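Why do we care about 3D structure at all? Because function follows from shape, and shape follows, mostly, from sequence. That is the central idea of this module. The next example makes it concrete: a single protein chain, its amino acid sequence, and then its structure expressed as tokens.
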Amino acid sequence: MSLSVGIVGLPNVGKSTLFNALLKRQVALAANYPFATIDPNTGIVPVPDERLAVLAEKVGTTVIKPATVEFVDIAGLVKGASQGEGLGNQFLANIREVDLICHVVRGFTDDSVLREGSVDPLSDKETIETELLLADLATLEKQKAPKATKDKDLLFRWSVIEEMQAAAREGTPVANVLDTPEKKAVGRDLGLLTAKKTIYVVNVDESEVGQQAAATTKYADMLEVHADQIVIISAKIEAEVSALADEDAALFLEELGLKQSGLERLIAKAFEQLGLQTYLTAGEVEVRAWTIKQGTLAPQAAGVIHTDFEKKFIKAKVVSYADFLEFGGWKGTKEKGKQRLEGKDYVMQPDDVVEFMIGA
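And the structure:
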């Protein structure tokens, strides 16, 4: 399964600088992985996973395929976007297609960069979210009540729409009333923007980026959101890091007191917010990470590789990553009794190295 993240924000908050750093990562990815595509408004970047290179050495392959995230640069959101200002309708339509909204707000103090509507991080957030909410309200008000029906599904759908209409009219994101999987499904079907999960990227000064814990608390309070939704980034630093070789980038980040780049932290946060994880396959042909929802059962995980695998699933041969390394791969783990045969009820774990047994 693929993960797509839409980057939104007011003009001059650092969104383009961040996206250009993503594009540089994409170019590096495209040199090694044929499934990467290049488009001016799309960046496909790898999910950082140090385990892949280690597994590749263990099984004797040079082909490594990480999980990927697609970032979509959604430009032009300004006040009035829901009424078409700044080509707003076109860009709002783009947001409907993504899994997660990445909202970039301005936290840096460079007065040489014009604000163009940006006053402070909270006003940035409120301006964009008002436009998303107005667009949702327009969608909801176009819905028609079912007439003369006893169909429980239609009646339930309409009751949820009425709840969302009431929330939107009060200026509340519709996600606040979507408290069950069934209600969330209605929001998704309608393509509602404020039904989507959101993370907030605060583009801060270079001097603040090394103080991650303090900055996260500060901006979570300022934006009135949970700290788990905050990612602190200096877009300027990300641009510099993306131009460096891996070893040089690691040293540069270490000097700043950071273990990971902002882009790596952003990807990890996207996975966390959407409840995603990966599992691993390792063989002589390739080593690969596959993206699945947390709690996915083995047959459905096999179906991510190929739809037929889910239908013809027999068993999953599973080894923990730690055991795979300690006992020398598939052969060693078999000899030491560290391999497990799991059936259709097995819940996949993030450290699983798996070989699926598929019927004819």
